[in-house]
User: Fold this.
Amino acid sequence: MKVVIIGGGIAGLSMGISLLKKNTDVVICERHIGINAKGHAFLMHDDGLSLLQAQDGPNDPPLAAKRVKEFSLRRPNNTELKHLKLDHWHCVKRADLIYHLSSLFPADLLKKGREFSHFEYEGDKAVAAVFKNGEKESGDIFIGADGGNSKVRNELFGAVDFTPVEVREVVGIAKNEQLAALYKNTFTKFQDRTKGLAFGFIPTSNSEFVWFMQYDTSISDISNYEPEDIKAFCFELMDEFPEVVKQVLSSNDFSLSYVWDTRDFDLLPAFHKNNVALIGDAAHLSLPFTSAGTTNAIIDAQTLVENIGSFESFEDACNDYYKKRAEDIVRHINQGRELKQLFLKPNSNSDDEIPVPLIPKRNSQDTPDLNTNKPIQVVYFTDPICSTCWIVQPMLRKLKLEYDKYIHIDYCMGGLLPSWKDYNKGKINTPNDAAKHWEEVCATHDMPLDGDVWIEDPLPSSFPPSVAFKAAQMQDEEKAILFLRRIKEMVFLEKKNIIKWQHLREAAYESGLDSARLYRDSEGKAKQLFEQDLLRAQKAGVTGFPTLIFSDGKQENIVVKGLQPYEVFEEIVHRLLPAAEKDNVKNSPEKLFSFFPTMTEKEFIYLGNFSRDSASHILNDMFNSGTIEKYESKNGTIWKSTQPV
Assistant:
């Protein structure tokens, strides 16, 4: 069997390399003679990058890919609207990727200077591809990987109806080491509030950026694409944008910049016809707002190659390929169109509603309903600085591990410390008393706490971090729990005063929350939500923490106060739901860290049922292998997974 690929871009080369690895006879036909240096750079998801890396041999040089860790969305006045952690994205220059893939594919099988003209047929099947230079390439299977303006697609299905070009992008590569040092690993975007105009830049290395200027063509447009005209046009549109934008533009070689018409077309009825199939932009084209094009092309190629080797007929292989890919493609097409409308009409949504152009929007059916469909509801009254709430963590985590499918926990802030002036509980009347108490709790319960925070940088109140938690809940319930855990680690082990915004901002970022929005919400609605929690605690008669109220909606509520053995929680579950069964969770170290990204040694021992010596050996082995890292405090260590949250 011989496969002829038409198009030697990313999709075509990726598929050719994969076919060679399966000992398939393959030829790639590319219309360009050399590699077009006018290419840009793009964001690639781990899904695509991992497939590329799987193609590399043990002695092949790695692809140059710059990790992108953060997304910052700002207004032209530099007000930050969003600040998010990115876990799965890299920036790759197109030319670098083409060079890399070309190095993995035999030069004699890459036929350049071949611009596709038409197929020759025997009956319904193509038997040869004919090129405008008069050359032909015969084959058994033909793959159209010739981009958004695919001539192969036109021959199979006729001309597609492209959507009108309402947004254009000017794209370039700028070299500036000083800016690269300031903005390393960050995708920075400035977006106008009143019109469709934006500027973004992403580091491609330690010395350069890819940048793009998106603009609504009804605002202004360019007709002459000479370098000086493009430069003048960019500076004119960016006149009211911050100085850093002008610095990027001043560092750019406009002879290598280009203007890109952004457009798409509806999903095709199939990605093949007889023995000719399409991959990448030839098969489907979405608007650039999703940053999905390159990753989709690579996944297409890999999917079709695997299918060719798994199905008896090419027809069945292509039908399954379409079935596997169509749903994702439709979602990306629709998402791109929605994002375009939001870009063209920026006044139509609030700052909080502006979507991140990298993360697929979850459908409502994909979002778990955290409040319903669980027979046992628990209201957990807690506080970020409550030491007993810290030492009860192993028991609550075990409850989640074993009975999570039955239990929903509603976290409610109780307001432990309004201020030291208004606090008088037992023997604790001053920060020094709190420091002494924490050291005693640590010694008694074997959970690390460092009371020195109350001496070195005492918190005047627990209200601000409680409000911040309510702000986190406004964004994402599950990430809010990670946020609460993180600020507890900061105060109990790292001696950080979590009333300070820089620490709350760091915790939000590490938990996958939008820290810019967290700040806005903490100054606004989250304060009202916290007041509602305080009123709820008062009505429930809560006087100490932790307090947990269990209910099945039928029987009388069961209240648990303070530190209790795990058996008490388990007994309540079975009283409310006699048929409840433990999840048969394999408590392997890797599994535990996938459930709980951070654990103290006591938690690891307790949840995994390890001996102390065994736990110490396992944790240190994982640390030495890079699977986890650690933070050592005066009174104990916390172990942290190195995998993304």
Q: What stands out?
A: Residues 361-370 have pLDDT under 50 and may be disordered. The first helix runs from residue 10 to 21. The first strand starts at residue 2 and ends at 6.
